[in-house]
Amino acid sequence: MSSRIEVVSRVSGRRRWTVDQKLAVLRDAFGPDGCIRTAVERHDVGSGSIYTWRRQAMSGELAGVRKLAEPAFAEVRIGEPPALPAPIAPLVPGLIGIELPSGIKVTVDAAVDVEALSRVIGALTR
Q1: CB 108 within 8 A of CB 117
Q2: pLDDT value for 68
């Protein structure tokens, strides 16, 4: 039977931390030789609080300086309306007109071999 007793004390309830105390914890956690686990144990604070304080320190909120969102504007230029596409050639019965996104136009007869047309369009879109 061991006569050794270990007393583990925990602060119950919420604690109030001053800005200086929070900054000291952050130095212990993120300083040159910092370690979050060591800071948690040394200061008896949760790691979630440490990360929250770091975010607040980085945004300026921890020191009571809150950055206001800067208004963002986009430059708008009003120009001439786009030109209408070139008129489509008059419809000829039995002809199929194909315009590819690259601007290439292909006109084929309705009796075109589908496989050959597929190979031609594949070659033109490469």
Answers
A1: yes
A2: 66
Contact predicate 98/121, CB 8 Å: yes
Q: With b meaning 16 or more CB within 10 Å and e meaning fewer, what string describes 12-25? A: eeeeeeeeeebebb
Return the biggest CA–CA distance within the chain: 106
Q: Which H helix or E strand runs over 120?
A: helix 114-124
> Whole-structure pTM over 0.70, yes or no?
no
Report phi then psi at 27, rounded to 5.
-65, -40
Residue % of the chain over a pLDDT of 70: 82
Between CA 59 and CA 51 the distance in angstroms is 12
Tokens representing residue 71 in the block: 């208004």
